[in-house]
Amino acid sequence: MKLSGERILAAPRQSVWELFNDPERLSRLIPGCEKLEQLAPDEFSGTINVGIAAVKGIYIGRLRLDEIRPPEHYKMNIEGKGKQGFMRGAGTLDLAPHDGNIARTVVRYAGDIQVGGTLVQVGQRVIESAAKMMLGQFFAAAEAELKAQAAGIVARQGFLINLWRYMLALIRSLFSRRAASRKEQ
Fold it and tell me: How many domains does the chain have?
């Protein structure tokens, strides 16, 4: 399964880089993350509780970073397993100022993930949809975390609030596309 995309976060690239490299803050952004520990400067281990359709479970895994070029790029190698199956893959994360505006950051991600075990029975479309939803929740939580940091407060995080943020972002996106298409007509 291939995943790729681009998100714009309203924060300088250095702030986004620091957020994505802080295990304590990052663990609050990842949907279902129960634990995230730094084993070495470029290696992490974690536990995530995820449910995809009827297949729910706890997965334990590792993440290793390569090709690190702060604050713009790294490659991620991941592997994880649980009673319901396994996953392994690799991907890249790139950060750049948005249209030359240093106060906004474009986050580009791309990766290829293989899954096996009971997870495969769910089907690739369902797994892809769940992965996209989790990415949406992650980026909604990241946006909230970065806004709170800029205001000097702590952001409230959690599954329901991050799901709500994700749904609001989807609705705003739909309305802005609709308004843009009306202006073109």
Answer: 1
CATH code at position 109: 3.30.530.20
- Classify 41 as helix, strand or coil: coil
DSSP state of 31: T
* H-helix or E-strand spanning residue 148: helix 124-151
pLDDT digit string (tens) for 109-132?
999 999 898 878 888 888 888 888
Predicted TM-score (pTM) of this structure: 0.81
Q: Which domain holds residue 113?
A: 2-184
Cβ pair 139, 3 in contact under 8 A:
no
How far is residue 36's CA from residue 30's CA, in Å, rounded to a whole number? 10
Which class for 20: exposed (0-12), middle (13-18), buried (19 or more C-beta within 10 A)? middle
Edge-first strand listing for the sheet containing 43-52: 2-9, 101-116, 85-98, 73-82, 55-69, 43-52, 33-40
3-state SS, residue 117: coil
Cα(92)–Cα(66) distance, rounded to whole angstroms? 9
The rounded distance, in Å, linking the Cα atoms of 46 and 62 is 6
End-to-end CA distance of the chain: 37
